[in-house]
Design brief:
The complex is a heterodimer of chains A (241) and B (303). With 241 residues, chain A is mainly α. Chain A has helices at 2-14, 17-38, 43-81, 84-88, 94-124, 128-155, 159-177, 186-197, 209-233. Chain B has 303 residues and is α/β, with parallel strands linked by helices. Chain B has ten helices and 14 strands. In chain B, the strands form three sheets. Chain B has a six-stranded mixed β-sheet, with helices on both faces. In chain B, a hairpin with a 2-residue loop joins strand 4 and strand 5. In chain B, helix 2 (91-102) packs across helix 3 (107-117) and helix 3 (107-117) packs across helix 4 (133-145). The two termini of chain B are 34 Å apart. The chains are: A mainly alpha (241), B alpha/beta (303). The interface between A and B is medium-sized, with 30 and 38 residues.
Chain lengths: 241, 303
């Protein structure tokens, strides 16, 4: 039962051209890093550029972009086109549908994001801790983002737009201007993890890793609980209704 | 043997009432849910299948509420009206996935059986995305039957089927009903319901307008007053001649047309031509004024 749900979700996600195009954004990160290395940079700003590439581009653009598209599609696309009826008409507890969808979406996000970040990290800087730190941060961030965007897709039919707005406006602008809002920025949670694991070299986060992880876990759990609650109560109307 | 019971069920969306205080029971055999488009058939079926919460009243399947009880889907097969399917799956994969999600012990074998039932074998390995409407419909029915449920709910199952497929599907449903299953299907086409159902529920504007044996409802429908509009070379002469016929209840001359009312559809159509001949007028036009299904339904509602 679960394996069927996994393979249905995987096939639906991988069949979308959108998902595959996302892999190109990861390739772009690696290419940018390669170009930078080929330029023969001085050691002095290597650290700074690596932070920009992995933190700003990797965790700041690639990860949320992939997560918003995959996260909102994993259950949202079925809600949009009505095929959700084939899942709902089965004697499967709704929490299981949500958790399986979340796990698969998380996996897909990681596959699209983590290799690119790890590879870029290894190319950009001799300190391998940076690659490890940012990769693990991407994994943690991927789970939190995916849970939030999956829940969002069950709350509104405009999840993609709202999710993008959150990433660009909240995390990009508001969190940059007002330090107090950073505690609710998933990007800051991920950066805090990168900091903690990067052996002091990452140094981008404004949050302590303890706070970041605690808030991140609570947010992910609340999002999953909300998604389950919504799916248990989702109503299917007819086409004309 | 399973029974679906609706007790005082209403459903509204905002201030639009889609279903208005409907009560009935559906037991073994084939029940047809008949009504014009937009009458609330899908809303009713979705409430019965547990996809919509009733705003008031209750829906039970064998004593258990259908809303928010996913366990009931072990006993229900549901064929939605919407065409959307997992287009990237083949028919066989789609039906097998349904079997597996139902928790059927041997999904592959169950899928083969269901595909045989709906005669989809030749197309079973092609992607559903490329299916014709009728084939898609059969794949959906196979997926709904795959766990052998005692209750089958089908929303407009004959849409898009050609006449041969339609006959085959009717035969399939009859056989399933004969095995003691409870089958409920919706349709806006009188003939489909007439040919298939033991029992009919007529829904108009969210209300249950009539229910029971089809012959009784058919009689209600045919015994109502019929109106015809005529045009001839001399309407007044023709009117006089027609009024002499026992079956003609009223004639009216207005706006250059002759309107005739009768309680007997057949008698009027037989009487018109001879009457015109006797009166020596030539008949230019004759058509029923209110034979749309909607007017039949609204007549039933007014009763």
């Amino acid at each position: 039962m679960t394996s069927t749900l996994v393979s249905l979700t995987l096939r639906a996600l991988l069949n979308r051209r959108r998902t595959l195009l996302l892999a190109l954004v990861g390739v772009l990160l690696v290419l940018a890093t390669l170009l930078y290395r080929l330029g023969g940079p001085s050691d002095g700003d290597a650290l700074n550029v690596t932070r920009r590439l992995l933190g700003d581009f990797g965790l700041g653009v690639l990860l949320p972009l992939v997560a918003v598209i995959v996260g909102t599609a994993s259950l949202g696309s079925e809600l949009d086109d009505g095929t959700i009826v084939y899942l709902l008409a089965k004697p499967i507890p709704r929490w299981r549908i949500v958790l399986v969808k979340l796990a698969v979406a998380w996996l897909v996000v990681m596959v699209l994001v983590v290799p690119a970040i790890a590879l870029a990290g290894l190319i950009a800087h001799p300190n391998a801790n940076l690659a490890t730190g940012y990769s693990l941060a991407a994994m943690v961030g991927a789970l939190e983002y995916t849970a939030v965007f999956l829940a969002l897709s069950l709350v509104t039919s405009r999840a993609l737009v709202i999710g993008l707005a959150y990433v660009v406006v909240w995390e990009g602008v508001v969190a940059a201007l007002f330090a107090g809002t950073r505690v609710l920025s998933i990007r800051q949670h991920a950066l805090a993890v990168a900091d903690a694991l990067g052996g002091g070299d990452a140094a981008q986060a404004e949050l302590g890793v303890g706070v970041a992880l605690a808030v991140g876990i609570v947010v992910a759990l609340l999002a999953a609980a909300l998604a389950i609650r919504r799916l248990e109560r989702v109503e299917l109307r007819g086409e004309t209704a | 043997m399973s029974t679906l019971v609706l007790a005082g069920v209403s459903r509204w969306y905002g201030n639009v009432v889609a279903v208005n205080d409907v009560s009935f029971e559906v037991g073994p055999g084939i029940t047809g849910l008949l009504g014009p488009n937009g009458a609330g058939k899908t809303t009713l079926l979705h409430m019965m299948a547990g996809f919509l919460a009733p705003s008031a009243g209750e829906v039970h399947l064998d004593g258990r509420p259908t809303w928010r009880h996913p366990d009931i889907y072990r006993s229900i097969g549901f064929v939605p009206e919407r065409e959307a399917v997992y287009g990237f799956l083949s028919g066989r994969q789609f039906v097998a996935a349904s079997a597996s999600l139902q928790g059927v012990p041997d999904p592959a074998e169950a899928a083969e059986r269901a595909i045989d039932l709906v005669e989809l074998q030749p197309a079973a390995d092609r992607a559903i995305g490329g299916y014709s409407k009728g084939m898609r419909q059969r794949a959906k029915v196979a997926a709904a039957l795959v766990h052998d449920p005692p209750v089958l709910i089908l929303d407009e199952p004959f849409n898009g089927m050609d006449p041969r497929q339609r006959l085959h599907m009717m035969d399939l449903l009859r056989r399933h009903a004969a095995e003691g299953r409870t089958i409920l299907f919706s349709s806006h086409i009188l003939e489909e319901v007439e040919r298939l159902s033991d029992r009919v529920l007529v829904v108009v504007a969210g209300r249950l307008a009539a229910s029971g044996d089809f012959r009784r409802i058919r009689r209600l429908m045919t015994d109502r007053p019929h109106r015809f509009t005529l045009r001839s070379s001399d309407d007044r002469r023709l009117a006089r001649e027609l009024l002499a016929e026992a079956e003609i209840d009223a004639v009216e001359l207005r706006d250059g047309f002759l309107t005739v009312r009768t309680g007997d559809y057949g008698a009027l159509t037989r009487a018109v031509a001879p009457a015109a001949q006797r009166a020596g007028v030539s008949l230019l036009e004759l058509h029923p004024a209110d034979e749309s299904l909607e007017s039949v339904f609204s007549y039933l509602v007014r009763r």
